[in-house]
Amino acid sequence: MPQDFHGVMPYLVSPVSADGVVKERVLGDLCEHLIASGVHGLVPLGSTGEFAYLNTTQKEAVIATTIAAAAGRVPVIAGVAATTVADAVAQAKSAARAGADGILAILEAYFPLSEVQIESYFAAIAAATDLPVTLYTNPNFQRADLSITSIERLSRIETIRYLKDASSNTGRLLSIMNAVGDRMKIFSASAHIPACVMLLGGQGWMAGPACVVPKPSIRLYDLCRAGKWEEAMVGQRALWSINELFARHNLAACIKAGLESQGFDVGDPLPPQAPLGAEARATVVRALEKLNK
């Protein structure tokens, strides 16, 4: 698989039964649907994949199922998230053995960490395999996030080639782009910002909503690549309507409710998260039906 990641790469949900078993057939069917819809890659165990609520066996099953379903047609970038370096390294090596094409590196933190400690975590993941690494930065949710200075230093590690930035801060993005030059390529989050990031020189976006609106997402990407910015902004405004809904509720609950309405038996978000109530579910379903026409 060519290691040039770009385009729309959905953060996959993790379908898990009430007794804790990954629904491999459901996940495989979802992957098949997304590939048929034209996505450019698949990302198991991103934020929408509820990685914080899964055990090691479940994580490995989600990654293995995704790789088997992709069958080399699109790259699979496996999420690696941990509080310790040892666990992160073990996860990265496991994903590489399973056949992942890249690593999405996420830091979970409880105690405060210095910049040097944060950088050492990501550097250890990069050293664990020869796979290309995507750094994940989300100042809104992460206790220990990457500073622009840290991103610049990490960009000098050969295998750290991508950054998924969920800050929605174009000034920060420009500073990062200026700092890393051509050593690192940038992916956006899926909110009001992807078209703006593409205009600035981004590669695409990694995000959960693309699971439920793959074709509108791909249309937006294609318009951006073609430089049809006026049309792209029309599509961007339409996609923002579902992100507004997702911002009001639990993200995994929204994506899973949407997928259930589309015929995928992905189940509820993992406890202690709760599924959407009837009214919220109906609102999400109506919004998705409108976008997917």
Report on the architecture of this protein:
- The chain is an alpha/beta fold.
- The protein is built from eleven helices and seven strands.
- Strand 6 (185-188), helix 7 (194-200) and strand 7 form a beta-alpha-beta unit.
- Helix 2 (56-70) runs parallel beside helix 3, helix 5 (148-154) runs parallel beside helix 6 (170-180) and helix 9 packs antiparallel against helix 11.
- The longest helix has 20 residues, at 229-248.
- The chain is globular and about 45 Å long.
**Looking at the structure, what is the overall shape?**
globular
Query: H/E element string?
Result: EHHEHEHEHEHEHEHHHH
According to DSSP, the number of beta strands is 7
**Structural domain count:** 1
Query: Given the structure, what is the number of helices?
Result: 11
The CATH topology corresponds to TIM Barrel
Largest sheet, in brief, is: 7 strands, parallel
What is the residue-averaged pLDDT? 94
Q: At the first level of CATH, what is the class?
A: Alpha Beta
Structural class: alpha/beta
CATH architectural label: Alpha-Beta Barrel
Instruction: Tell me the strand percentage band.
Output: 5-15%
Helix-strand blueprint:
Elements: E1 7-10, H1 24-37, H2 56-70, E2 77-82, H3 85-98, E3 102-107, H4 115-128, E4 133-137, H5 148-154, E5 160-165, H6 170-180, E6 185-188, H7 194-200, E7 204-207, H8 214-225, H9 229-248, H10 251-261, H11 278-291
Parallel strand pairs: 1-7, 2-3, 3-4, 4-5, 5-6, 6-7
